[in-house]
Amino acid sequence: MRMRMMSKLAALTSFGVALLMPGLGNAQMTKIKMGSSLSPPSLDSITPYVAIEKGIFKKYGFDVEVVEFRGDATHVKALLSGDIDLSINMGATEGIVSASKKAPIRLWVVTNPITPYHFVARREAGTTLQALVGKNVAVSGLGAISYHIPRIVLERSGVDPEKLKYVAVGSPADRFKALVAGKVDATVVTNTEAAKLASYPDIVDLVDVPKVVPEIPYEFGMVREDYLQKNADTLYKLTKAIIESNRWIAANKAGTIEVAKKILPEENPETLSKAFDMADARLWGVNGDISEASYKFTVEFLKKVGYLETPVPYDKFFDRRFVDRALKELGRK
Prior knowledge:
- With about 325 residues, the protein is of the alpha/beta class.
- The chain has helices at about 1-20, 45-55, 55-60, 70-80, 90-100, 145-155, 170-180, 190-195, 210, 225-230, 230-250, 255-265, 270-280, 290-305, 315, 320-330, and strands at about 30-35, 60-70, 85-90, 105-110, 120, 135-140, 165-170, 185-190, 205-210, 220-225.
- It contains 16 helices and ten strands.
- Helix 2 (about 45-55) packs across helix 11 (about 230-250) and helix 12 (about 255-265) crosses helix 13.
């Protein structure tokens, strides 16, 4: 009897200590480092931040840190070197091109199946796409999605994209600052920057990109093949978390703006609200995927402009098992 009482007392004591020790309740949480090519972040790529702030990652047992990079090039290097576990916001074209060059990475979830871009220019440089011939276009990096998007828009509008000059500047926020300062003539910016144009009469919005090029995806979640093979259950749970976060964003403007104000304290709440309203309803991937047709359109363009020779087939590039399993449980929207 005495031994039984001592065991009960020890158990109660251990329970009390556990309650008093901060962080012990999170001992089973799996730490994950997720890469993002946007620094600072943007409202359009807010998915992982929402998943953190609203406890969606935590619900699935993850303690997630978003590691921000200024552009895709450094992001890809960090992924391949193992400095991060996986990517959540990598430019779609960068992911496709890197995989075609034998980088051992695969697509595991699609955060943004269309782009949030607007092709904008300084009024003095030209108020039509044709007028931009010979002018400078700011991009995050040569070969990045912000490099390919204006080229596709120009080509579809009958303007030779080779007749413009492309200058590597950085994130959408960096490119917008360079445009306002008159250091470049044009660029593509996200809805967040486009929402500010009323305050910049010298800048004109030439094209709402998703209306002209709806096929091109924006941000991909990419993962190394070795991590994918060893952590299938982790990727499945993370996929569910991302899809649930995107669905929450699409249905909760006010809550999304609250999260955005926290991670983007320098942005005006009215600007964030306007940017949310400007976003195409398809921007946040409520199903976490893209169609094979969209993928093929994108790779055909990349082949045409010389950025890849032999694309990875859709079913080899996109490991759909995590999305398909999640959608089986959550339902397709």
